[in-house]
Design brief:
The structure is a single chain. The chain is of the alpha/beta class and 210 residues long. It is built from 7 helices and 11 strands. The chain has a 6-stranded mixed sheet with strand order 7-4-6-5-10-11. Strands 1-9-2-3-8 form a 5-stranded mixed sheet, covered by helices on one side.
Length: 210
């Protein structure tokens, strides 16, 4: 598949619209986030979400995070937004922080891995943000790789076994790479860091103590 080239700084509207059109028809795409390329599908379409699991050969009991436009989307997606989550969102959204909330009724069970929880992030990368805005609804944000394999920071390194099952690939050039987003469960008190990523444990604790 020939990738669609797209500017990382000023995403071309025509390419964003094409990508959104693919997603609205139940397609799966590869797209850039700040650190790694992700696999995007309409998070409200159960067939599309199941395709993500198939493309990645992912265990269906492993949850998949979603991307949203901003925190005003949360009331229709989660059951509660604890005060510590408000602090963390204020400090790190948009950016490399995924917060795990109690999933609302609107969240597909396919996304939660039967945990009753959903990971949510507001993307900072202009392409990811433009696609989510164009969708007007949540987008899956899992990494573009086979489960258990390294993430992809350059489309040239995208696994052929993944690329061959996609409907579109958006190439915004090499990304910064790294460990991906920091994941924090805010359904417990105090919040628990599930994965330390681009935002350090010290940064998180400083905000929570403030």
């Amino acid at each position: 598949m020939t990738p669609w080239l797209i500017s990382a700084r000023a995403p071309e509207t025509v390419v964003v619209r094409k990508a959104v059109g693919v997603l609205q028809q139940g397609g799966v795409i590869a797209f850039p986030t700040s650190t790694l390329y992700g696999l995007g599908a309409d998070a409200g379409n159960p067939q599309a979400v199941r395709r993500i699991y198939a493309v990645k050969s992912r265990n269906p009991r492993q949850p998949i995070l979603i991307l949203i436009g901003d925190k005003t989307w949360l009331p229709r997606l989660v059951n509660a937004v604890p005060p510590p989550a408000e602090k963390l969102m204020g400090a790190f959204w948009p950016g490399g922080l995924t917060l795990v909330f109690p999933a609302g009724k609107q969240i597909l069970p396919e996304l939660t891995g039967d945990t009753g929880k959903i990971g949510i992030r507001v993307p900072k990368h202009p392409v990811a943000a433009a696609i989510v805005s164009g969708m007007g609804g949540p987008l899956t944000g899992t990494s573009a790789n086979l489960s258990g394999q390294p993430g992809c920071a350059d489309i040239a390194d995208l696994d052929d076994r993944v690329a061959g099952r996609l409907d579109a690939v958006l190439d915004a050039g090499p990304l910064q790479g790294g460990p991906g987003s920091t994941v924090i469960d805010v359904t417990v008190d105090p919040p628990r860091i599930l994965r330390e990523g681009t935002i350090s444990k010290d940064q998180v604790q400083t905000v929570l103590r403030s």
